[in-house]
Amino acid sequence: MSLQATIYLFVGLSFALYLGIAFWARAGSTSEFYVAGGGVHPVTNGMATAADWMSAASFISMAGLISNLGYGGAVFLMGWTGGYVLLAMLLAPYLRKFGKFTVPEFIGDRFYSKAARNVAVICLLVISVVYIIGQMTGVGVTFARFLGVTSAQGIYIGMAIVFAYAVFGGMKGITYTQVAQYCVLILAYLVPAFFISLNLTGNFLPQLGLGSDLAGTDVSLLAKLDQVVTDLGFNQYTTTTNGSTLNMLFYTISLMVGTAGLPHVIVRFFTVPKVADARASAGWALVFIALLYTTAPAVGAMARLNLVGTVNSAVGLVKSPDGGIVVSPDAVKANADVYAPEASLVYEDRPAWMKRWEVTGLLKWQDKNGDGRIQYYNDKTKNEAAKGKAEAAGWKGNELTVNADIIVLANPEIALLPNWVIALVAAGGLAAALSTAAGLLLVISSAISHDLIKGAIKPDISEKGELMAGKIAMAAAIFVAGYLGLNPPGFAAGTVALAFGLAASTIFPALMMGIFSRTMSDKGAIAGMLAGLAVTLFYVFAHKGIFFIKGTDFLGLIGGANSFFGITPEAFGTVGAIVNFTVAFLVNKMSAPAPKHIQALVESVRIPKGAGAATGGH
C-alpha cells in the first residue's frame, strides 16, 4: 500500500472512532454537556485531561522547539509539568469541593459579584481564543502535509471536523473521545521514538538513548550533536539558554502558573464524583503526560541529528539496507569536515520526504551559490571560526529553511521509518490538535451561554435555550479561531505560550486569592484581573500587533523588542501575575473586606471534610 493510502486509512479510521464515540456519548442535559454529568472515573478523567492538555503545541511544536533551542527549550517541559503539580496541589481539590461548573462561576460566587464573574468571562475568552489559534495552526500544518493541500485548506477541513464532534457531544462526548485520542497520540509519539533511538544508539528506550553513545562508537549522541551544530555556527545544543537567565526563569514561571489557571483543564476536575477523585485524576494525568514529556527531549535531539545528517554526510549517518537511517561508526570516528564540497547533499538527490514537505511551503531551499547542493548552517553566527570556514568553502548563506512546527511530523520520514509509522504520526498529530481545540471550544461555549447569558443577561433562559446558545457560541468561536489560525502570530507552541501568559496574569491569581485569602474583596479581585490582563496584552500587542493583526505592532512606544529587562512577550505572564497580585492587595487594603459569610465559605472549602477541632486534653 502506498504511503498516501496508508495515511488515509489510519486518519480515516481514527476519525470514524472519534465521531462514533461522540454520537454514542452525546449529551442530553446541560450537566452532561458541560461536566459529563459529574460521573467520570479518575483514571478515565486523567487520560482525557492528558489528551486535553497535550495539544498541537505539545505534540507537534514542543519537540520542534527543543530541537531548535536545545537546553533552552526545557522551559516548556519544566513549566508545563510543574504547572500540573501546582494545579493538583493548590487548586483542583478546592475548586471541586466548591462544586461549580465553571471558573467564572467560582469567581462570581467567591467574590460575591456579577462584575467579577463577567471580568473572568472576558479573561477566559481572550485566553481560549489565543490558545485555539495555536491549535488551528497545528491542524493546518498536519492536514497540509498529509492530505497534500495548502495550510489554509487544512485549517478549513479541521474547522469542519472539530465543529462536528464538539457540537454534538459536549463534555460527555468529548471526554470519551479524548480517551481514544490520548491512546492514538501517545502511540504515535512513542513508536517512532523507539525506532529512531534503536537505530541511532541501539537502545530502544529514547529516554536512555538520549544519554547513550551512538551505536558502534564511544561518542555520545549529545556530544556528537553539540560538535556538529557548533561546527555549523549554531549555538551549543546542551547549554544555550532561551534568552537571558532571568527570561528563562520568568518564562518557566509563566508557563507553570498559566497551566494552573487554564480554564479548559480546570473544568476537567468538575467531571469527577468526589473531591478525592479530583486529586487522583490530577495524579493520573501527570503519569499519562510524563510518557510524552520525558520522551520529547530525545525526539528533539534525535530529529536534529537526523536532519543535519541527511543534508550533510560528514555527520556520519547513512541509509541502512532495510531503509532506515543508521550510524556509520567509521564515519563518526573519522570526524570529517562538514564544509567539504562533497559533504553537502546534492539537491536532485534529496529524499522523497523533502519533496513532500516542499509542497506545503514549510520547508524551502534556495541555491544561493549556484552549486546545486544544500548548504544548511547558521549564516548569522557570531562564531568567527565557523564564519571563516563557510566563506572559504564558497557558501553564500543558509539555503534550507525548516519550520520548527514540522519536526515531529517529519521525524519518522526523516528517519526513513515504515509507512505505517508515518501514518500513525499523522493520526496522532490530528488527535492532539483536535482534542484540545474541542476542550477550548467547550470552555468558550459555557462562558458565553452559562456565565454570560444565563448568569448576567437572561437568568430565566430555559435549559434547551442555554444549550442552543452554547452551540451557536461554539460555531462562532470556530470561525474566529480558523481566521486567526490562517494568520498566526508565531509557531504553535509560541502562540500557546502567549495564552499561558494571559492565564497566569488573570485567572490564576484570582483563583489563588479566592481560595487562600479569606478577606480578599470583589473590588480587589476585579482590579487585579483587569490590571494583569491590560499590562500583559499591552506588551504582547506591542510585539505581535493589536489582536495579532500584522503591521499594527508598536515596539517604538515601549523602547524596542524585549525592552522590559530583556523579557520576551511569551514570558511576560509572570510580570502580569505580579501586577495582578499587587494591585489586588492594594485595592483590597482601601476597600471593605469580604463579608463574614464569604469568609466562612472560604474557610469551609479549605478544611477537609469531617476534620474536628484540635484539643489539648490528656
Report what the structure shows:
- With 618 residues, the protein is an all-alpha fold.
- Helices cover 67% and strands 3% of the residues.
- The strands form three sheets. It has a two-stranded antiparallel ribbon. A two-stranded antiparallel sheet has the order 3-5.
- Helix 4 crosses helix 14 and helix 7 (114-146) runs antiparallel to helix 21 (492-505).
- Mean pLDDT is 83; it is low at 610-618.
Mean pLDDT: 83
Unreliable residue stretches: 610-618
Distance between the termini: 80 Å
Number of helices: 25
User: How would you characterize the largest beta sheet?
Assistant: 2 strands, antiparallel
DSSP strand content? under 5%
Rounded Rg: 25 Å
Write the layout of secondary structure elements.
Blueprint: H1 3-24, H2 30-35, H3 42-53, H4 56-69, H5 74-98, H6 103-110, H7 114-146, H8 151-201, H9 206-209, H10 221-231, H11 245-260, H12 263-266, H13 275-293, H14 296-311, E1 317-319, E2 325-327, H15 329-334, E3 345-346, H16 352-360, E4 363-365, E5 373-374, H17 384-392, E6 400-402, H18 407-414, H19 419-457, H20 463-486, H21 492-505, H22 507-516, H23 522-544, H24 573-590, H25 596-606
Antiparallel strand pairs: 1-2, 3-5, 4-6
Helix pairs in contact: 1-8, 1-19, 3-8, 3-13, 4-7, 4-14, 4-19, 4-21, 5-11, 5-13, 6-7, 6-22, 7-8, 7-19, 7-20, 7-21, 7-23, 8-19, 8-20, 10-14, 11-21, 11-24, 14-18, 18-19, 19-20, 21-23, 21-24, 22-23, 23-24
